[in-house]
Design goal:
By secondary structure, the chain is of the alpha+beta class. The protein has 6 helices and 11 strands. The longest helix has 107 residues, at 138-244. Keywords: Coiled coil, Hydrolase, Signal.
């Protein structure tokens, strides 16, 4: 702080110094030189620290890769568990329906038996021998014997059916209890997976923020020292020039001040223009792909595709990136974390893994040399070799790969060369 305060005072004094002061400044030239040497030493030290931090960042990136792959796998398992739970719920509904049917049948059979027993109790019933002894006609005796046999057989069948229904109801009760136990177990496992996922995500986010903050602070300090070095060097040149000729010095100082003002103005204008460009919303998409064009050649879908996720397109294809200056080869669609990422058309998954700079990445081959890429995902929900249809969910929105915003990086390529997705898409 003392060195910077001295530097600014010296710079201010250099613009208003008298000839006598300039003459004395020759003896003081050692002071800015010492300050410049100090800046050089600090710069070298910071460069070494930055190199060390970048090595730490590389190691952390490998750890980040493992963490994000683990999160992707946990999300996939969670997705599978939800599907299993849906299937078990359907089985449980079917068991409950069967149980209701058999319970109703049992109630009807019990009611019939109760009615028969009640009728027998209410009116009484003579024995078969009494009935037969009262008959004189042999044909009547035969009919009575046949009737008694029929009634006895019907009652036996009714009781056997009731017994069978009791067994079925008990069996269904046991099956229902087993299914409920299985659902409880799946629910417990699902909650455990979710807790592990949240813990892993928290550790990853903390790691990324710590390393990014450290590197950003070091780079800012290096840039600041470089600017100080440049200004101090210019000041030393100005002092040397002033010692030789006051008029030449004053003219050079005015021209230099004008140049610096113009540079600062241009730099500020460029920065303002870049910031406005970076924050601009290119398009807002609310439509999602469907399987309406499945079976069609991909080359015939130009102008018919939908973007893979609902969100905001923040850049144009081929424009320069604000962070690196490299041209965009696709689109970044800012979207809510965890949103479903859809396949834009049918095809086969040929890559589903973590890739440096793209995070969790999935690539779909649509045939005819056409491919689509979906990067920065929180989770990849398909595997290599899977066939997908247009509109199928293939991933979940995230910020893997070190991206600061949640969204999907989307590319279209033909014969490995990228082309503008917006010229092939309908944005609604």
């Amino acid at each position: 702080m003392l060195m910077r305060r001295w530097f600014h005072l010296l710079l201010a004094g250099s613009l208003t110094a008298t000839p006598a002061v300039w003459a004395a400044s020759k003896d003081d030239s050692r002071q800015p030189k010492a300050a410049l040497d100090e800046i050089h030493q600090r710069l070298e030290s910071l460069k070494k620290e930055l190199t060390s931090s970048q090595e730490e960042h590389a190691e952390a990136a490998d750890a980040l890769k493992k963490s994000e792959k683990a999160i992707s796998e946990a999300n996939r398992k969670l997705h599978d568990l939800q599907q299993q739970q849906q299937a078990n719920n359907q089985t449980l509904d079917a068991l409950q329906q069967q149980k209701t049917v058999h319970t109703n049948n049992l109630k009807q059979q019990q009611a019939l038996l109760n009615q028969q027993f009640y009728q027998q109790y209410l009116y009484g019933k003579p024995s078969q021998a009494q009935v037969l002894l009262q008959q004189q006609d042999p044909n009547a005796i035969t009919r009575q014997l046949h009737y008694f046999g029929y009634v006895s057989h019907a009652r036996k069948e009714l009781m056997e059916a009731a017994s069978a229904n009791i067994i079925k109801v008990e069996t269904l009760n046991a099956a229902t209890a087993k299914t409920l136990q299985k659902l409880d177990s799946l629910k417990e496992q699902q909650e455990k997976e979710r807790a592990e996922l949240q813990q892993q995500k928290g550790e990853r986010d903390k790691l990324v923020k710590q390393i990014s903050s450290k590197i950003s602070a070091q780079r800012n300090e290096i840039d600041k020292l470089k600017r100080d070095e440049q200004r101090l060097t210019q000041l030393m040149e100005k002092l040397a020039k002033a010692a030789r000729e006051k008029a030449a010095r004053e003219k050079a100082a005015r021209e230099k001040a004008q140049r610096e003002a113009a540079k600062n103005k241009a730099r500020n204008q460029a920065s303002t223009s870049q910031q406005a460009s970076d924050s601009k919303t290119i398009a807002r998409n609310d439509a999602l792909p469907s399987n309406a064009f499945d079976g069609s050649n991909f080359s015939s879908l130009k102008g018919k595709l939908n973007l893979p996720v609902r969100g905001v397109v923040t850049n144009r294809f081929g424009s320069s990136r604000a962070d690196t200056g490299v041209s965009w080869k696709g689109l970044f669609i800012r979207a809510s974390e965890g949103s479903e990422v859809k396949a834009v058309a049918s095809g086969q998954v040929v890559f589903a893994d973590w890739l440096r700079g793209f995070g969790n990445l999935i690539i779909i081959d649509h045939g005819g040399g056409y491919m689509s890429l979906y990067g920065n995902n929180q989770a990849v929900l398909k595997q290599v070799g899977d066939n997908v249809k247009g509109g199928d969910t293939v991933a979940a929105v995230g910020n893997s790969g070190g991206n600061e915003q949640h969204g999907v990086y989307f590319e279209l390529r033909y014969q490995s060369k990228p082309f503008d997705p917006m010229s092939w898409s309908v944005v609604k």
